[in-house]
Write a structure and sequence with these properties.
This protein is mainly alpha-helical and about 350 residues long. About 75% of the residues lie in helices and about 0% in strands. The longest helix is centred in the N-terminal third of the chain and has 33 residues. It is globular.
Length: about 350
Amino acid sequence: MEIISHRQAKLLGILLAMDGMLISLPNRVFQLAERDAWMAYLLALPVVLALLWLQTRVASRFPGKNLFQIVVLRRPVIGRVLALPVLLFILLVIIRDVRTLSEFVTVELLAYTPVPVICALIMLAVVVTVSSRFEVICRMSEIWLPLMLVFLALVPVLLFPEFEIRHTLPILEKGFLPVLQGSWYTIAAMGQILLLPLLLPSNQFRMRDGVVSLAVAWITMEWLNLCILLAMGSAVASKLQNPFYEMVRLIRVTDFLDRFELPLDMIYIPLMITKMAFFVFAFMYGLEQLIPALHMDKLVLSFGAYCFSFSFWFFRNASQLVSFLRPLSLFAISLEVVMTCLVFVLFRPKQNQPDGDSSGPA
């Protein structure tokens, strides 16, 4: 694993915590929580922070090792059992994301291009990125993520004339239960940042880096969902597959500046490719830890072809992608909570043992 800077670790954390919630997730949250959808993001922050603290607490006891190495090397049998559902989750996210991005490009940009062609090109870009080493993924995040954050900061400014405060009232009209239901999706999406301690040792990804990443991602998504609510209302947003994208289409500075979704496409697509490249790298790295005889460089192309074919075997149309969000979110939040707690219990400091002790066979 290449050594990366703390700045790159923070950017990767923002990418994982935010990018999965940017386009399609607001639709589901608005369907459940309606005008109180912004509260679902508020509830997600402390839960993910607590889980991240547990993971970094364990990693800090074993300097120079990430959680994949810790669980597999120190508990060979139990560690492999714990790692398998994590790899399954990563695989499902890759398959979903590559098909979602392909459908997005087809609908919004290339209506006459077959979906398999777009999907193959996206997967090829992901494979080339992964083959270029982990450092390249980090450097790509340094390019595209700041551009996305700048673009997202401009959206509320340009849309301010469209805001109507009446869309936010009354608050908690249907009680707190819909907000709790919506928070399951936001916790699962924001919790993707928990993959970082699996790959990065404690000296590269510290708790303070995770706090900064989660704070930036949470503030961004909280504000953007408030913008969606103020600009369109929950009744409209809940019926749109991509509420944020449709909100950007409302921006019209003059009669000649009314296509602000095009700069969004130019940034969002390579950013999603960067995120998928990280997930492919995480899967291949985790597989190497489970089966040391395997080598990532020899398998990444075959794995890319596998993801391409399975993206059409799992999802025959775009509506199945939307339906898949519910079981995937339930699986994600269960995995994030259960695995984090199990790892913390298995590797907690023993009585009369210093917290920083990392004794034991490596």
